[in-house]
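Format notes (please read before filing issues)

Several people have asked whether sequences and structure tokens are stored in separate files. They are not. Every record keeps both together, in the order shown below: the sequence lines, then the token lines. Line labels are part of the format and must not be stripped during preprocessing.
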Amino acid sequence: MYQASTEEIAYTNLLELDEKWKSRYPGAIQSWIDNWEVLSVFFKFSAEIRKIMYTTNAIESLNSTYKRINRNRNVFPTDMSLLKVLYLSTIKAEKKWSRMMSKWDMCLSQFRIMYEGRI
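Then the structure lines:
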């Protein structure tokens, strides 16, 4: 589904997936079908950006770093202290990232056009 070239093909693939696995996992794919309007926003991005979005290893790694921080501290005195901790942990996690995602430069230039002034 994620690698489909258009939203229509992806939806067709989703329905085929539902047919194949409906009997074994009745509720698993139904939530994707029910929320298709939200999920289909994904196809407004180029194929390169979509690949980065569904290749989640870096995102999952960063998310686990944030969870680890949150487990150690349940309360932060201010919102700014939380933001500082998240910023510093992101910088620390970034040092572990050794390879750049393929076609990242192309994606970054597309983001700069799409979100002008924010990147």
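For reference, the curators noted about this record: The chain is about 65% helix and 0% strand. The longest helix spans residues 57-72.
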